[in-house]
Amino acid sequence: MTTVMTDTPIDSKPPRRVVSQQTIAPWLFLLPAFLFFATYVLYPIVQSFYISTFEWNGLYSPQYRGVDGFTDQQCLELGNRAGREPGCELTGDTVWNAEYVGMENYRNLYTDPFFWTSLKNNVIWLVLYFLAIPAGLMISLFLNQKVVGMRLYKSLFFFPFVLSQVVVGLVFSWFMLPGADEGLLNVILGWFGAGPVNILGNADTATYGIIAAGLWPQTAYCMILYLTGLNAVDPEQIEAARLDGAKGPKMLWYVVLPQLWPATFIAIVVTVIGALRSFDLITIMTNGGPGFYNTSVLAFYMYDVALSEFGFRMGYGSAIAVILFLIMMVYIAGFLWKMWRDEKG
Amino acid sequence: MFPRPIEQASPAMRIGYQMLLPFMLLVWLIPLLAVMWFSVKSGDDFTQGNYWGWSREGLQGFANYWMVFTESDMPRYLWNSVVITVPTMLGAVALSCMTGFALGVYRFKGNLLIFFMFVAGNFVPFQILMVPVRDLTDQMGLYDTRTGLILFHIAFQTGFCTLFMRNFIRALPRELIEAARVEGVSEYRIFWYVVLPLMRPAIAALCVLIFTFVWNDFFWAVVLTQSPESQPVTAGITAFNSQFRAMYHLMSAGSIVAAIPPVAMFFLMQKHFIAGLTLGAVK
Lengths: 345, 283
Prior knowledge:
The structure holds 2 protein chains of 2 kinds.
Chain A: H1 21-51, E1 54-55, E2 60-66, H2 72-78, E3 88-96, E4 99-100, H3 104-110, H4 113-129, H5 132-143, H6 150-162, H7 165-175, H8 184-191, H9 206-231, H10 235-243, H11 248-259, H12 261-277, H13 280-285, H14 298-306, H15 314-344
Helix pairs in contact in A: 4-9, 4-12, 4-14, 5-9, 6-9, 7-9, 9-12, 12-15, 14-15
Chain B: H1 11-28, H2 30-39, H3 43-47, H4 63-70, H5 74-105, H6 111-123, H7 127-139, H8 146-170, H9 174-182, H10 187-198, H11 200-216, H12 219-224, H13 233-244, H14 248-268, H15 270-277
Helix pairs in contact in B: 2-14, 4-14, 5-8, 5-11, 5-13, 6-8, 8-11, 9-10, 11-14, 11-15, 13-14
């Protein structure tokens, strides 16, 4: 039996608010993914900004304690040599041995010729990668028919996108092998009495050779976006335009393309991201060469600076990553802004 | 339909089109066909400079593929890729079913902000995460392990999956959920018994996509692993490259083997794969 407390007026306190299931449920559902995402994506972004103000070789150094007239501070300043100095002994702990340099890394980037080469190549990538969009549109128009076996044709045209960029890179580097009888490209050029060319071995052409390889899967991706878009084009509008005498390029430009805008938008987003993320193909096809960083882009240069055999420069690498991130953020912000407008409207 | 259906064209046009199709496909896939040719030639052909011609020994057939499986680390790399890809696929899809449900069904302050955070995170360049993630993985003692890669991939792929799932759930009829609530069904049971069964096509689409993305990943494989014990096939093939150098017959057989699983996945689950990629392309 429960005792009823008669001495407490019932309405003296507001009734305790019951947290409804509907209020906490979304947070419980979000929690695990959020923890993962925060640990591996959000926090590392902040950390990269922080690390970019340091000079750090990626290692931790053992910590020493001062004895015999040495202060801890002196031992700290002696750094790694401390263990061999009399008066310092190991504590068993390790500390982050980065050195704060402020904006130094960014100032160094400004005078670093390889950084500018990489940035220039990034711009070339970005511009030429857009070819994937009209090329994808052309192929999708070519394939948008109902004939026997069309499903298989469409799948096979899409095929390059399913391959790993590593495989695409290998495939194209063999395709472009320099000797007259080696790469198929030179064999074909030979039939027309041209060549041989050494695309990947020449500093002036290598970047274009790699972009050509990248355009292969990217065009396939844009093609599939447009094929889906074309499926949804309103047949009545097409018929009406036909009755008005529109056809060919005019029909495409004034009637079809406006309806394909959602597909074009997605194609632009994935193409920009693809162009700025280019890393695999460069590593596989030229490893940044020929020469020093002639085909490098920021993504590649960052990796090479931070994890190369010439020493691990994590701070400098992070500064490059921050620049790349800021460039990318412009596009991401634009994308989110459009999404936000769509949500509201 | 645009362009005008070919059935309405003249017979000559129709036949011309039918003949143009395989020709264009051939041109489109020529680099790949070249690799297939490389993969069945004998090693001597390459040392003698006979890259394209028929040789006296003829073709190797499957001998090169057999060698790849028996005399290299390839089977191990393939297995590592499987061990990395499958748990990632399950983990990312499970987490994003929950986030998609939370963001698609409930109205609460910050809903859109959290959603945008997942979307934006999915698009950032890998390099901004590289140093801290490598360091974190190292600190956890997971550098050069498959687990280290799996954990990162799950976290990162959850961004894309959340975008996908949330939009999918938004398109489901809300009345179903409202009706269940009126009946007094708990939120957890609504998720499990009402929404999840409806999400099957989305789950299938995401599984194929994540499988392909993670199988094909190269960057994180080289950043977080280095030995044949844990490297997936994309990173492995580059090690393979230095082992076999100019032995194009083995290298090309190896690359074809590495490419088969996602290709097979694509052909088996084509409808879902394309539905996943073209999300938002039709509106």
